[in-house]
Amino acid sequence: MKTAILACKTLRHEIEKACEIHNIDYPIYWIESGLHNYPEKLHKNIQDELDKLQNFDRVIVTFGLCGNSLLGIKSNNLELIMPKVDDCISLMLGSVDERRKYGGKNGMYFLTKGWIEGERNLWVEYQYTIEKYGEEEGNEIFNMMINHYKSLGIIDTKCYDINEIMPLCKEIADTLNLELKVLDYSINYIEDLLTGPWDDERFIVVKPNSEVRDFTLEL
Hints:
This protein is of the alpha/beta class and about 220 residues long. Helix content is about 35%, strand content about 20%. The protein has nine helices and eight strands. A five-stranded mixed sheet has the order 2-1-3-4-8, sandwiched between helices. It has a three-stranded parallel sheet with strand order 5-6-7. β1, α1 (about 10-20) and β2 (about 30) form a beta-alpha-beta unit. α6 (about 120-135) crosses α7 (about 135-145). It starts with a strand and ends in a 13-residue tail after the last strand.
């Protein structure tokens, strides 16, 4: 089947590494990561991109539900392959179950090189808040926004040199009073998404001429 990849730029390093490992040469069409802040815009952008890919048979979509942005996406003549996850963090960590280990009262904010390179990342939002409201009021506002986070988790997928981002990550953690932790995870889930086979437990297969429907993410 003639296959393409529709991918979030947040996962660029991991997807390119997986393609290198498995000699995958499918064309990749990138979606800006900042659109996650606007679910309706993300939904429209993904649908518009899929509408342009009608000369393919299958598109591997490297998104989870992402704030329900994927719900109602129409496949048209395409078969769509998606990971059965809520968002990119669960995809990076390998499962929704694994993501939930870092929730609760001691929440963790996750970073990778891809997230840092994103146009609407945590650090950009912080600097914008300080610039807009001043240092004292800006810090109060931002601390309220992230008060349920206790740590900053750097996901080391071995797809780039983590030392390239550690100085900035340390600065972010120190500034926001978060404990800095490095988490070692493989990209096996992403590799399986790109190569198949796609079992029902971890993947969603959307048939041609149908749409993405809600699905249960159970523990």
